[in-house]
Amino acid sequence: METTSSHRQSHVEKVDLEGLTAAYIMTKRCFDFTASLVGLLLLSGVFLVIALLIKLDDPHGKVFYSQTRLGKDGQSFQMWKFRSMITGADKMVEKLLRKNEVEGAMFKIKDDPRITRVGRFIRKYSLDELPQLYNVLRGDMSLVGPRPPLPREVVDYTSYDRQRLSVTPGVTGLWQISGRNDLGFSEMVALDIKYINHACVSQDIKILLKTVIVVIHPSGAY
After folding, report:
1. 57: nearest Cα among 89, 80, 81, 84
2. Interval 124-133: pLDDT, tens
3. Between β-strands 170-172 and 142-144, what pairing exists: parallel, antiparallel or unpaired?
4. Could you give the CA distance from residue 146 to residue 5 in angstroms, rounded to a whole number?
5. Whole-model pTM?
6. Dist. CA 174–CA 187, nearest whole Å
7. Spatial separation of the C-alpha atoms in residues 102 and 134, rounded to whole Å
8. 92 vs 57: CA distance, rounded Å
9. Closest Cα to residue 79, out of 125, 145, 35, 17?
10. HSE-up of 39 (CA within 13 Å, CB side)?
11. Residue 148 CB contacts under 8 Å (≥ 6 apart), including other chains
12. Any idea where the domains of the chain sit in the sequence?
């Protein structure tokens, strides 16, 4: 694995944080706060409908699901989502690891047996991610940035991979609009570093607009 990582590192640019100016960071945070607050208010009806569908599908399960993720500089926080899997899904991970379809420090299965009927639909259109607007409002996350990894995934990170933790994680990013689960872990890291090194307001806006298109016409989401 170390050989593979070293080979990858020699071909991909490394993080340069000089472009993350105080003005950009402040503008980004103000936009995140305002957009997430407005989004939570406008989408309250959608939240209600999704909650009802989840309850109808599984009356005894919870509507929301929280999971410990690592954000900027490896700081842990609780990330919120609409529950799309059966109760106790986390306990089944070890048994399913051999079926992992993504190379590297990431776990994904296209036909994951833990996903519920409603869960499959809301995951396809990324509706399960909507509660993360609350994380954005709190400042745990940004609208745009690298996806926050699980602690068990970061254990396998090389020092090169950990560079993606240099900034606040996002709800969407270059990975989501460039193929998502069709891409491997190494491609995701490369895209995250590319995003960080070219961070600017115009890039964030472009990613958000392309995310809307990807949500309407999903590809590589499961």
Report:
1. 84
2. 899 999 999 9
3. parallel
4. 19
5. 0.85
6. 10
7. 28
8. 20
9. 145
10. 17
11. 69, 70, 71, 77, 79, 141, 169
12. 2-216
